[in-house]
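ugh ok so i messed up the first submission bc i forgot one of the chains. this is the corrected input, ALL of the components this time, i swear. 545 residues overall. if the numbers dont match what u have on ur side tell me asap before i send this to the collaborators (the ones from the other lab, u know who)
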Amino acid sequence: MSTSLWRTTRFAISTVCAILVLGLPAIAGQETAFIRILRAEVLANGFAHARDLYVNPDEPLGSVGKIIFESKKLSLNGNIACQTCHLTNFGSADGIPNAAAIGGTGEGPKRLLSGAKLLPRNTLPFWGRGGKGFETFFWDGKVDFSHGKRISQFGSAPPSADALVTAAHLPVVEVREMLEEDPFTRAHMRESVKDSAAVYRAIVLNLRRFEPQASDELAKRLNKSPEALTYTDFARALAAFIRSEFQIRPTKLERFVDGKESFSPEEIRGGMIFYGKGGCVVCHSGRYFSDFKFHAVAFPELGFGKNGFGVDYGRFNVTFDPKDLYTFRTPPLFNVEKTAPYGHSGSVSTVQEAIVAHFDPLRLANLASMDSLGRHDFFVRMTLCSETANTVGFLEYDDVNDLVKFLKTLSF
Amino acid sequence: MPLRARTSSVLTILNIAALSVVFFVFARQFVVPFIAERIYKDSYKELMFKCDNVMRDHFIAKNRVLASPSDEAIKILHAAEVGLSTCHDYDMLRKRLISLGVSENELSKLGLEAIEEKANDVHFFVENHEIRY
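and heres the new structure output, hopefully the right one now
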């Protein structure tokens, strides 16, 4: 190569390098500013350390609660345990769109295909349940003790002042979920205190018969005789176990906030989208990244739906207020990457799709495969999603991926 | 060394220096801006689109607070304000391109191209329309 050619080449290379490198100091400075903004936004929007979220008034009952949680005898006649649908390997849920309850065998997808009776909604994970400030339960908030409220199916006399203990009373008496329909259940399938008390009494007798050691231990710890045990005692034990086993633990976000760990550029960008143009923070704020309010998001519907024919009216089923049609509780986001599939009917399988459902639901809707009622229902839900549409900004493919990277910092 | 030879080598050095200056000026004025524009054209258009998008969101959020103030509206406005950080990337790239010699005119042209990219839809529609009828 001649000298002049070599010089020209060298000049060209250095020119290109200069173009690429000139902006680097500026980019580095910008990232430092974004780190400061992000940290401030996290703190300003209700962030709490994991250690400050744990509360467990019945902690000594936790070991008994574990046995009850794993026992299929908690189900009066359905041969199913809490653990059947709340599995560690599926992020404390079951990994399938609609819960596969009684009548099946195995776990997760295997159970779904084994002929189990399906429930209309996606199994919720347990992370943080019953922690400080976590008092709104189920997709439609049918148990809600937040802000001094006492909403539950027990009317003005809930079995406990503890929302999680009250919530633990519901699945065991839900037909198809943990209760098989037989002459006994049919005889008591009425909304009366007397009938529900009879079912709870039968469950307690079942547990005392088949889990005698756990029952005796529970009675001992509560300082009462085994004969005096009520279902609420077992529910307290269950709640103690759930609180301890599924408590929120320190996350990468927590370490970032404390200055103990740094974020990658993608995680910073994702965080800026979460607290910025994505508008996620408007609903996913507070200690558990949920406002515990009810919002409509036009997720595709999967399965037969709580209201039948593929329709699920959501919160309306609890309040009968038309304003609540198609609304569901904002899901908390801890460990969200582990709890697929997403949405109240589990109709989307990735976090990316779940995000897309908030700002571009038509991308996920297979209109051609919907029947006319399905399309009408989808249209109605779209019109009722105006609040979400006004909140969540337009995001591009890379934005969604960055957002997912940020959400993964909420895992532990 | 004879004087003539010395003069000749000085002139050669001066020639090379002059040529280098000319080459440098030419590169700075034409080559660098040309390459920079080619490299960053698409990113610039994309960032311009993103910035425009968050600015519109912010404008709407601000007007929502004025029209119907509520905690929710204020939350949305605050998120929209944080969202304006997207424009920082656009501003940075714009300044970088200007410092690399890309003219304001060229940048305006890129901006117009970005805004009018949807115009292709109209061409597509007209072509189909003509074919069909």
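quick check: Chain B touches chain A through 32 residues (CB under 8 Å). that seems consistent at least. The helical segments of chain B are 3-67, 71-83, 86-99, 104-116, 119-132.
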